[in-house]
Design brief:
Layout: E1 8-9, E2 12-13, E3 23-29, H1 32-41, E4 49-55, E5 73-80, H2 91-105, E6 112-114, E7 118-121, E8 124-135, E9 141-151, H3 168-172, H4 178-199, H5 202-210, E10 218-220, E11 226-232, E12 238-242, E13 247-250, E14 256-257
Parallel strand pairs: 3-4
Antiparallel strand pairs: 1-2, 4-5, 5-9, 6-7, 7-8, 8-9, 10-11, 10-14, 11-12, 12-13
Length: about 260
């Protein structure tokens, strides 16, 4: 497949898209994030996409390794140059998770999102999102590289992942075309990014809330504090109400389930 993959996604021709006007479809790379970072440094325009059949050194959130079966996963990174305050850059991570949810719903599954951006089905991880931001010397947001990995056609996982990961194929009992899922994902990203640029993040966050598995649940923050996840604010931070009535604003770190009170 050529670097310029001209087609139609959700009725919009490639030349009309903000995201996906140019797709670099590669075979095996260290990571799609590293590839698109190189393209960004060379002046690639916003909306450039890199995909790969396999990553030798794929990364998830907090530096974790991302495992993929060659040809069975959708591995994609997108270059964004948003006009957002640095504090609102996490909204792009929410956009990624929501676009994944829309894409896989069309494949016949019902995903939920764990704050901020893990896409789950029946408690197992179907997809992950990694948003990496870079700022200018003046402290303004220069770009965000949005990396997405979706488990599409794996028939099985390594033993250490069996209880934590799942694929579309395992969930539905049938094979799924990675290219079709890619096109649906890029279409959802394009539509969501257009809305974010035109109207701000309110609609994006409302759609995320409807799919959230975190809101309303008892959670434990990375520093050991516990409470009920009440909401997310306009920048995507998680608001947790502790038992003594305090409201915690959590912007980073792992959120885990807390024991029932």
């Amino acid at each position: 497949m050529s670097a310029r993959d001209v087609g139609v996604v959700n009725g919009r021709a490639a030349d009309e898209r903000l995201i996906g006007h140019t797709v670099h479809a590669l075979d095996e790379v260290d990571s799609t994030q590293a590839e698109i970072a190189r393209l960004a440094a060379a002046g690639a325009p916003e909306g450039t996409v890199v995909t790969a059949r396999h990553q030798r050194a794929g990364r998830g959130r907090r530096g974790r390794e991302w495992w993929d079966g060659a040809g069975d996963s959708l591995l994609v990174s997108v270059l964004l140059r948003p006009s957002l305050p640095v504090a609102e850059a996490p909204l792009l991570s929410f956009l990624g998770a929501l676009a994944v949810a829309v894409a896989v719903e069309a494949e016949g599954v019902a995903p939920r999102i764990r704050w901020p951006n893990d896409v789950l089905v029946d408690g197992r991880k179907l997809a992950g999102v990694l948003a990496e931001a870079a700022t200018t010397a003046e402290g303004r947001l220069d770009r965000v590289v949005l990396g997405i990995g979706i488990n599409v056609d794996q028939a099985s996982f390594p033993p250490e992942l069996v209880d934590r990961a799942v694929s579309l194929r395992i969930l539905t009992g049938r094979r799924h075309d990675v290219g079709r899922v890619r096109d649906r994902l890029l279409g959802a990203l394009d539509a969501g990014y257009r809305e974010l640029r035109a109207r701000g993040g309110a609609g994006l966050l409302a759609a995320w809330r409807r799919r959230s598995v975190t809101l309303g649940a008892r959670v434990r923050t990375a520093d050991g504090r516990e409470g009920v996840a009440e909401d997310v604010d306009e920048a995507g931070a998680l608001i947790v109400r502790t038992e003594d009535g305090r409201r915690l604003r959590v912007t980073a770190g792992e959120i885990t389930g807390a024991p029932a009170a």
